[in-house]
Amino acid sequence: MDNEYLMDEPKSEINWRAVHQLQLGGSAFIVFLMVGIWAASGFGTFWPVWVWFGLSVPLIVQYAIRRGLDGPRRWRALSVHAALACAVGVILTLIWFLTGFGFWLFWPLFGMAAALILHAFGTAWWRALHPKREQELTERVDVLTRTRRGALDAQAAELRRIERDLHDGAQARLVALSMQLGRAEDRLEEHPEAAELVRNARVEASNAIKELRDLARGIAPPVLSDRGLPAAVEALGERSALPVKVNARLGRRLSPVVESAAYFVVAESLTNAAKYAPGAAARVSLFEESGRLVVEVDDSGPGGADPAGSGLSGLKSRVEALDGILVVVSNPGEGTTVHAELPCE
Amino acid sequence: MRVVIAEDQALLREGIVALLRDKGIDVVAQAEDGPGLLRVLSGHKPDLAIVDVRLPPTFTDEGIRAALEARAKYPGMGVLILSAYVEPVYTAELLDSGGEGGVGYLLKERVGDVKAFVAAVESVAKGGTALDREVVSELVRRRDPDGRDGALSALTPREREVLGLMAEGRTNTAIARALVVTPGAVEKHISNIFSKLDLPASDEDHRRVLAVLAYLRSG
After folding, report:
1. Pick from A174, A197, A219: which residue ends a domain?
2. B60, B85, B145 member nearest A241 (Cβ)
3. Quick one: CATH architecture of B2-131?
4. B192-211: pLDDT as tens digits
5. For the segment A100-143, what is each residue's pLDDT rounded down to a tens digit?
6. Is B101 within 8 Å of B78 (Cβ atoms)?
7. Are residues A222 and B114, on separate chains, in Cβ contact within 8 Å?
8. In this complex, which of B59, B85, B88 lies closest to A164 when CB atoms are compared?
């Protein structure tokens, strides 16, 4: 089942290894063919060597460029230059050798070496003038990572504060109101019509309380801050319309922002499962592995979920904002698996 | 009847006290947090403690923890939890905590329905059970997703209604009033439910509720 995620990787890239092997195989075939033709045409001057030379040129150039591109990013232009210079040098040497040492090899090689040395000096000089560019970028990435995390933590704290304020403020006042209405209703037994009006007002107050409660739960579920992720996920499982098996192994509390992201991954996945896979069973697992919190929700429904659907893509951006990943595997007929990993060190 | 209240918000605490006093129920002490509750309990030995889930200093589940501790310490005392939200985890902890005293878990806004609230207070003080209908509907739904559970789906819609009301801790008379039928009809429904679910019959309201809850939670 773990391998399923690998199947989700994009496959758009050309398989260069296969292309190169094809090229090598083709070249080898032509080499033997030429030798055969040379032998069949009664030997004579060994001309196939020129065909070999022609075939080797693109191979040498390709090899040189690939090696050149492997160099460190900051020196890449120079390393490609050096590789190409070597390639041209090798090709010139080959020509020189094949033409029976017919020209003076020194000057072209000397020219190329001079150009390369100039380039090297130029690069070194430029880097000396801008020594901190790389370092600056690294520091900038650190700052951005830290401030983004800080912003997310602040947001999570703010949401909890709003939930608390709803509870202590508007909700409490409405409860007090409904109590007073209840007492008024109780004293109006002699006046059924007035009692009816007061009762209606009380029911309205109750509805408002219920709406506030649903709102608060959507913002920051109280059981999550009270009891932590495993208990909150258990509660989600119990509340779900599907039979849900929860396997949550966590030895410690994680940061609020990670807990809440994981909570909403499970909540949204279970809601989707109940909506699109009624009658299926669902399974939630939750564990920490080498500094990452792994959350997985799978159901035995019909599969075929659209990972670009608004709920799932919202989850994805939530998880990615924490440098996590979220993968949805939902092949038709094979159920749906939502797998998320969140760094939690 | 002697009642103690633990609620940190004065507005609500005073509201509940006034409402209970209207009904002749004596609120002997008030507390604002968990430790405070345990302190006043040792002095007053009340019949019932009404406890808010979210109390200082942690403002999380302080009330539930204090209530569980109180239940263990004073086995005969009833505990009625008031909460702004239904949390299955807390209900389960409360129901599993054993003890002989009554237990209740109600949403705060139920206090506004004075008759029902006072009935719940009296029932829990006497060792009964009073669960919020949202708690019960969650238990029933969990037990019976899409009616695939054989035993529950054998019940008629009316019997399921009666089962829900029974699980809330209501007496036969209260169920009859809520459904606008005669107490005799309610008794008949109840005996049908017990035979269909294969539950041990009992005349005592409280045992009966426990049997129904045990059945619903066994899912």
Report:
1. A219
2. B145
3. 3-Layer(aba) Sandwich (3.40)
4. 888 888 887 776 777 778 77
5. 777 777 888 889 899 999 999 988 888 777 766 777 888 889 89
6. yes
7. no
8. B59
